[in-house]
Write a structure and sequence with these properties.
By secondary structure, the protein is an alpha+beta fold. Helices cover 43% and strands 18% of the residues.
Length: 736
Amino acid sequence: MNSSLSGRFVIDGSHRVIEWELGAAALLGIPAELAVGRRCYEVVQGYDEFGRRICGPSCRSLAALAAGRLLGHSYVAIHRPAGPHLRLRCELVALPAGDGAVAMLGHVGPGASIGRDLDITSLLSGVLASAPPPDNLWHVPEVLREASGAEAGELFLAEPGGHGMVLTCHQGVFRHAFSQITHFEPGEGFPGLALAQGAPVFSDHLLDDPRFLRSRVKEAGFQQYVCMPLRSSSGVVGSIGLAFRRPDPALSHTLRLLSWASGPVALALEAGLLRMQRALFLDTSQGTSGGEDNAQSILGRVMDTLLPLSGAQGMAVVLLPQTRSASVQRVTRGATPRGSCQALSSVPISCPASARACGTVLAGPRASWPAPCQDSPRSWSVCYCIPAVARGRPISICQFYYHSTGTSVPTRSLAWLQAAIEAVTHSIRVAHELYEEEQRAQTYSALTPAGPKGSAVALAPHMPERDALSSLRRPAEAGPYLVVRCLGTFELRKHGMPVTPAMIARKKALTLLKILLTKDGRPLSRETLIDLLWPEGDPQTKTGQLHVLVHELRRLVEPPETNRRWQFIVGEGDRYYFSARSSCRVDAWEFKLLAEEGRTAGAKGDRDAAISAYEAAVQLYRGDFMEDEPFAEWCLEEREQTRETCIFVLRRLAALHRSAGNWHRSIELLRRALRMDPVREEVHRALMQALWADGRRDEALRQYQTCKESLARELSVAPLPETEKLAERIRSLPAP
């Protein structure tokens, strides 16, 4: 901005000029000697025309600020006592908390002054600090849009775990065109590229740029788009986008402005997320004693916390069954539909949010919804379906119902609520386990035939009746004495109650138990156990310590009335092993038996039996084997073998569902396999084929891009020719 035709001054909340630069005095024809050493408003009050047009109540700039805007501008005529009259642009940048504004006078519009950009950056910092999140974020696109001269501004937030970018706020024109795609995978579109690369993405020829995927925006005449990532200490947390219908002649200025503004916005967003997650922590210690009442109490507290935060009119938490014998549980708050969601009312679950382990939005015409959701009852404008994921698998779907969203984009609160649900997942998991324990006890009582002398024996729920699984029988009235979970985070329960670290005097006793479980009941010699427990120790001096650990472990897990006839920690000379022949259940052993049963049934051509066994195995796999022992060498081989078995089961089960025409379940299983190993190219091809056959050709082509980028990033290789050929077929044909 030409300094001879520009100037800055500051007005207070009463519209009085309280500070100025000499440039502003020169514009008004005020001699410099009168300006120096005097308060500005004392001098300027003598210039009635200036005071009326700049500081008076009729000023359009001030009217804009009074209406809640953070920027305002108008053109004013300056009648000076000496010199020609001037018609200049007056732009106001609001100061935080309504304390006034910084004003700029000049011939040119926004985009030329470094001082102005600093003022706007300071304004954003003040706004972000003075309002609670996420309300403080909605002003950001509007301020930057007006400051840059763009016709549209957007704010995207990154989903937890880097799943993608969600459109959170749009300011300006053509909102529906920009809402054509509201979610971008990493590397997809400008927001996805900003997430994946962590660098600005821009184009001044949108019509010819294949990276920009929203065709309606191009049809609306937009020619230029600038996308700036919001980087914090935890990575990219979002992005700001500005769109221009007329090419911006000062692209470098727009990039500078966005670069400066992105810092405080990213820091405020990260700080807001941390504050929110701390505030959402719930004490669930009172709910660990078991029972459906405690579970409902925990879920009620979760919903009472989330519902006000969401702004929704109603909310439901649907607990997903983790075993085939379990049923779907639904707890509600506020105004919710009477009927249950069809995609969540049957087993296996066909919910897209569960399949992607990521939030899904139902809005707009029903025909645009995912196929499994189209038969669900609708009495709302927008519905969010957000999974709570524990140990790598969805355990519940949180649904938020909005009867009206006004003029905001339908995904406005999605990313924020996903972060909120991530903060309360532990509480949901505790409630889920309490429900499971209650249902398991009811199943035992209902299905177990009475034996001699009033005793009862039952098979584990969802386990097929076969001789190889007979060791899993247990008393029905109390359930299994021991339940051991090795898949995912290690858990040990006695009589349904968790064994906590505080109950274990010697922590290596628990390590000894884990080592014995890793060997599938095979005996381990004393020397081998000593070498695994104390790799640097002397075997002769550690023998006594091993005996102490065995004694401590037996005290921990054995029933009190054994009379030294050990049921679980069995010794044969100088060898020890874990026996599950008594009232015990080990999920990793059960998983292997079910996988083998599915393989055998498939080889015999019994598809229903194979699906039943494989589905039960998939439900058991909560996470990698002993995932809380990431560096222990004694479980690495078993972890890899179990992981490979799970991927095999997922692929075989997907193929069985595909042969039955159940494309949605096949897609769900293949996506889960890719989450476990994203560079399995044959799984990518199977998923592309399934999406194509299900009428989702655009998703199939996106999956090809994901495959290509994963292979390049992880292995530095290109897709195989058969993958390229499949992608070409999908491009050329609407369906197989």
